[in-house]
Amino acid sequence: MPKALREYNWRQWLRLQPLTHAVKTARYRKIDRRFLSLPAKAGDIQGTRDAARSREVLLTIAFGDAQCLDLQVRLIRGLVRHDLHIVADNSISEAAAGENRQVCAAYGTTYVRLPANPWTVKNP
């Protein structure tokens, strides 16, 4: 959130910081809107929505560590009461995403592969 115009001092106005901040904020918001409109890369979103209706849902964000995800899913199954466990995979590499998908398949956990995040994906 950019500062209010009255919060800038005269030196910042002389360096055109309010204008620079406004342009950058508009750019960031455009990138965010585009990212939020992207569909999931893998997973049945509509089916997951239907399955989650009126149920206790536990959502896990996976970041490319299948071993950690495996441990977490096993612990959650025994310690946390829930009706549906959804794993949203935000891994950068496709190899890591494939490993996470295999862990979810092994435990019957719902898997959704998120689109590449423009703020974390590495530039070619």
Entry keywords:
124 residues, single chain, alpha/beta, 5 helices, 2 domains
Notes on the protein architecture:
By secondary structure, this protein is of the alpha/beta class. The chain folds into 2 domains: 32 residues; 69 residues. Helices cover 49% and strands 13% of the residues. The chain has 5 helices and 3 strands; from the N terminus they run H-H-H-E-H-E-H-E. Strands 1-2-3 form a 3-stranded parallel sheet, with helices on both faces. Helix 4 links the parallel strand 1 and strand 2. Helix 4 runs parallel beside helix 5.
The biggest sheet, with number of strands, parallel, antiparallel or mixed sense and barrel status, is: 3 strands, parallel
Global Rg: 20 Å
Write down how many β-strands occur, each being a DSSP E stretch of 2 or more residues. Answer: 3
Tally of contiguous helical segments? 5
Low confidence ranges? none
| Helix share bin | 40-55%
Strands of the widest sheet, in order across it, are 1-2-3
Which structural category do the helix and sheet elements fall into?
Answer: alpha/beta
What is the ordering of alpha helices and beta strands? HHHEHEHE
Return the average pLDDT rounded to an integer: 87
Distance between the termini: 29 Å
Q: Work out the count of structural domains.
A: 2
